[in-house]
Amino acid sequence: NVHKNVTDIYYIFVGRSLGYLGGSVLGGILFDHVNAHLLLALSMLGTTGGLFAIPWCKRSLLLTALMSLIGAAMGVLDTGGNVLALNTWGTEAGPHLQALHFSFAMGAFVAPILAKMAMGGSEPRDLQAGENASQSVLSPVSTASATLALKHHLGADFLWSYVVIGTYLLFVSFFFFILYSKSSSVRDKSKASVQKCKVAKYHHALIILLFLFFLCYVGAEVTYGSYIFTYAKVFAEMKENEAAALNSVFWGAFAVCRAVSVFCAACLYPGTMIVLSLIGSAVSSSSLAFFAHYPISLWAGTAVYGASMATIFPSGISWIEQYTVIQGKSASLFVVGAALGEMCIPAVVGYLQGRFHHVPVVMYTALGTSVMTAVLFPVMYKLATASGESLREMSESEDRKALLSSSGLNEDEEDEEDGGEWNEADFEVIEMNDTLRNSMVETSLKAAGNSPSEASLQPHPGDAVDDSPVAAGVFYLLCDLTPITC
């Protein structure tokens, strides 16, 4: 559309990356003040507008601006998705974060297949011949006929691929607008104000260390996934289809393990999953660095390395949420660290690999980042636990106190009600006792007749009760039983 080769407009990818970084930072600030559902809906609309406009873009600078817009919207989306999951489920967000990041892996797996189905089958032979001759997808196609054939055969599919993806995102944005209309901003603000006091003692140090942790992890993940194809062809001397299969093994194990982690997160603590992932990453990267010349070691190490990298990012966010509150700015730093690792580490590896042709820089980078993350996590754990109990334990203790206080109030109310019932019963018994005592006095007087002397010689029941405590106890016991027999 812009009449330039990809190698001549490399700055569109730089613009997208810069837009992603800016969107991540801006989203982190806005998510602390604006409704999360509204921001996610607007970011979806921004991405939709960029995708709808790209097929009609005829200027490279305008294309760069559109790519920057899409990158900024994706930065807001990545930050907001993590923040929204943490705000919705809190310390129980582990399985939900794993499912969220599994959707990233699923999209990365499905999108190229759909693109290949849409455009690969109708690719002109002249273009295929030009690519085979140059052995690079980035090399220009020299003949004008190939360019015209590309426009003729791929024009409609090229247009509709953007329209379909943009329409899908537009459809999803409507759901976020509906959630925004149903949500309560007052409740979200009150919840945020209550959580502000739950900050770890070394909150800022933890955020910075986790920033470095994600920078190393994501950089290693993208570097290995980007260069394993070249490594397999150059160092392992594999055929092109075998190298592509090795690349698929890495990303396939990555996606499958993310799917399994959704269920594992329901029964394992995030810290446990991180430790297991770090152990698998260290073992597999060591095998790849020192024994990659054995085919079985290369294939098995690649699969284990991809599986080990799958759960670290969502588990890391779930783990830090247990010890301190993660708001928009903190989540944006995590996304920015991941983006910087994705940009910087592959570029450095590519430069070093170009300088040292006989050194497997990719494998040594995987080993170095594995060692770095294995050192950082114990330090973070020490700082996180130095402040005392975690937020999960704090919330459980608060819930326990609330239950105890509510049960105590219920018991007090029940005691008051029981006390009132017993007081009423006591008054009734006393009244019955007084009535029975008076009736017994009258009966004794009648039995004595009209003789005052005899009447005076007989004992008075009231006097007997007043003079003898034992007699009084027997008398009231008989009084309690008398109404039943009567």
From TrEMBL:
Compartment(s) where it occurs, according to its Swiss-Prot or TrEMBL record: Membrane
Entry GO CC: membrane
Location (main, coarse): membrane
Skewed-composition ranges (Acidic residues): 410-424
Keywords per UniProt: Membrane, Transmembrane, Transmembrane helix
Region (Disordered): 394-424, 444-464
Residue intervals passing through the bilayer: 9-30, 36-54, 61-77, 97-115, 160-181, 202-229, 298-320, 332-352, 364-384
Membrane topology: Multi-pass membrane protein
Family as reported in the entry's similarity comment: Belongs to the major facilitator superfamily.
Protein name according to UniProt: Major facilitator superfamily domain containing 4B
Organism field: Phasianus colchicus
